[in-house]
Amino acid sequence: MQLIVEFLGHSRRLANAREAVVRVGDAASYRDVLRQVAADFPALLGPLIVPHSFGLVPSYMLNVDGRRVVSDLDASPEDGQRLIFMFVEAGG
Fold it and tell me: Is the pLDDT score of 57 beyond 70?
């Protein structure tokens, strides 16, 4: 399957890219997508993607198509989805 990953803010600076096409197997999870992103953009491993578990550091989230946040990284994405690396902002 093929997904588009969009980088915003700090992730864009580290990746040195606005977006990337990521290819993973048909049975892949969001965690597998993050594993592939870390392989393609090693500068993200540590600052944004947690080594070994391939989760996200607490200050980041993965948004799907600008509509929802991924709450379960072991769930399966759908082919063609746009995943956005976003900084979690708190306000009041």
Answer: yes
Cα 26 to Cα 23: distance, rounded to the nearest angstrom: 9
- Cα–Cα distance for residue pair 4/79, rounded to 1 Å: 9
Q: How far apart are CA 83 and CA 70, in angstroms?
A: 9
Region label for 66, one of left (φ > 0), alpha (ψ between -120 and 50) or beta (otherwise): left
- Quick one: pLDDT band at residue 90, thresholds 50, 70, 90? low
**Model pTM?**
0.93
Of 55, 77, 59, 57, whose CA–CA distance to 68 is shortest?
77
Q: If you ran DSSP here, which 8-state letter would residue 77 be given?
A: P
Closest CA relative to residue 89, chosen from 3, 1, 10, 26: 10
